[in-house]
Amino acid sequence: MLRHPCRTFLEHFLIVADFPIDRLADFDDETSSSIQSTSKLFYPFAMARPVTLFTGQWADLPLKDLAALAKKMGFDGLELACWGDHFDVSAAAESKDYCKERWQILSENGLTAFSISNHLVGQAICDRIDERHKAILSPDVWGDGNPEGVRQRAAEQMKATAKACRNFIDAKPVQDLEFPPVVNGFSGSSIWHACYAFPPTSQTYLQEGYDDFGRRFLPILDAFEEYDVNFALEVHPTEIAFDIGSAQRALDAVHHHRRFGFNYDPSHLGYQGVDYVKFIREFKDRIYHCHMKDAWWGHGNGDVGVFGGHTDFGDYRRYWDFRSIGHGDVRFEDIIVALNDIGYSGPLSIEWEDGRMDRIHGATESCRNVKSYDFAPSRAAFDAAFERKKA
Fold first, then answer.
1. Is the pLDDT of residue 378 over 90?
2. Cα separation, 124 vs 120, whole angstroms
3. Which of 23, 174, 186, 289 could lock onto 263 through a cystine, CB 3.0 to 4.6 A?
4. Does 266 sit behind a cis peptide bond, omega within 30 degrees of 0 on the bond before it?
5. Are residues 159 and 294 located together in one domain of the fold?
6. How confident is the model at residue 288 (pLDDT cuts 50, 70, 90)?
7. Cα–Cα distance between 54 and 375 in angstroms, integer?
8. Is 29 in the same domain as 97?
9. Residue 345 burial (CB < 10 Å; 0-12/13-18/19+)?
10. 288 φ, ψ (degrees, to nearest 5)
11. Whether residue 114 is found in the same domain as residue 132
12. Cα separations in angstroms, 127 against 55, 97, 133
């Protein structure tokens, strides 16, 4: 089924049902609500996944301005970052009115949401803290800068994020998709600096890093359990999990806690040489959220390798770089097939990064591209029509 880039979930359903969309406004509230309930009932059979925009790279814009822009660019919703003015964790954890205000901004622009993201605080939970963290943390979390104090305050803030997410999703005016509430984020890592393993690094030393992650995150995950919210770690260099092998060790470190899963993002895997489609199948029960993000690799002029050569993103010498969706080397159709195979029906959230391209042009094109790549799984065998009915 072809999807119009600006249609709402309800409009998609009505198209499938051959219902005249322009007549929806003629019905009273009760009838309109009934139609929406029916559309939700058939939603999984009628359309592919909603496409959202991760707001982290747009935090310079007030949420009101970004919401209007996102709708214009064709998005179905937003994945709200917990920085800028997009989502205040403390306010959402304490005030349901604040959550309703966030939803009012989204609803006025025909947008929905399924998750929030707190990557910056998450980074400080297990990291070796230095002056760089001060730039990404609030004064309340940074405090006096004592490393262990920063880590502990970051952990408490992540616990509060679970409550904030619960309040936010509970305030949702229309439950348009059955999808567990999720907080996406980072973990930091006490052993990332040992990735290259020199000076010689033993498995005992590395295991201490995973044990540290487990000790710090298990209480956080218990808080997520209390609020019935999932945590999705974005598998990413600098985190405790950055490929398939380290993701498995991270799962082991938290004893496969049911609230711990992954925010899948192929752009962080492909340039490393990691099979990013295999990742989906390997962790089919732990894909709690998906980022759509492109990258290319095997480029540059040969001066800079996979480690980046201490160059900035966008430097022409780089072996790899993030690209707007459709301009890199990620095989998105293979990803969609794998997501369908494992039964993932949640949002596809575009994290847009490309230092070579205007971001409004790029995000608009990326939204259109993802909607063209995505498709609902088949509900019948393609050759079933050839079967003859038995007498």
1. no
2. 7
3. 289
4. no
5. yes
6. very high
7. 21
8. no
9. middle
10. -95, -15
11. yes
12. 24, 34, 9
Name the E strands within the chain. Answer: 51-54, 77-81, 115-117, 182-185, 230-234, 260-264, 287-292, 294-297, 320-323, 348-350
Q: Within this chain, do residues 99 and 174 fall inside the same structural domain, yes or no?
A: yes
Predicted local distance difference test score (pLDDT) of residue 10: 47
- State pTM to two decimals: 0.87
What amino acid is encoded at 300 in this protein? G
pLDDT digits (tens, 9 = 90+) for 168-208: 999 999 988 999 999 999 999 999 999 999 999 999 999 99
| pLDDT band, residue 352 (cuts 50/70/90) | very high
Looking at the domain assignment, is residue 169 inside a domain?
yes
Alpha-carbon distance of 36 to 82, in angstroms, equals 30
Instruction: Give the domain range for residue 128.
Output: 52-377
Closest among 108, 110, 87 to 176, alpha carbons compared? 110
Let me know whether 156 and 282 are in one domain. Answer: yes
Same domain (yes/no): 73, 41: no
Residues in Cβ contact with 105 at an 8 Å cutoff, skipping those fewer than 6 apart:
63, 64, 67
CATH assignment at residue 223: 3.20.20.150
In a domain, 384, yes or no: no
Reply yes or no on whether the pLDDT at 152 is more than 80: yes
User: 66 and 27 in one domain?
Assistant: no
- What is the C-alpha to C-alpha distance for residues 182 and 161, in angstroms, rounded to an integer? 10
293-310 pLDDT per residue, tens: 999 999 999 999 999 999
The answer to whether residue 390 sits within a structural domain is: no
Mean pLDDT estimate for the chain = 90
> Is residue 343 one of the residues assigned to a domain?
yes
Longest CA–CA separation in the chain, Å:
81
Pair 25, 136 in one domain: no
Listed in sequence order, the DSSP H helices in 96-243 are 96-108, 119-126, 131-134, 139-142, 147-170, 203-226
Radius of gyration of the chain (CA): 22
Return d(Cα 156, Cα 93) in angstroms, integer: 12
Number of domains in the chain: 2
Q: Which residues contact 291 (CB under 8 A, 6 or more apart)?
A: 54, 184, 234, 263, 264, 265, 267, 349, 350, 351
Q: Is the pLDDT of residue 115 over 60?
A: yes
Alpha carbon distance 235, 112 (integer Å): 25
Torsion of CA 141, 287, 373, 36, to 10 degrees: -90
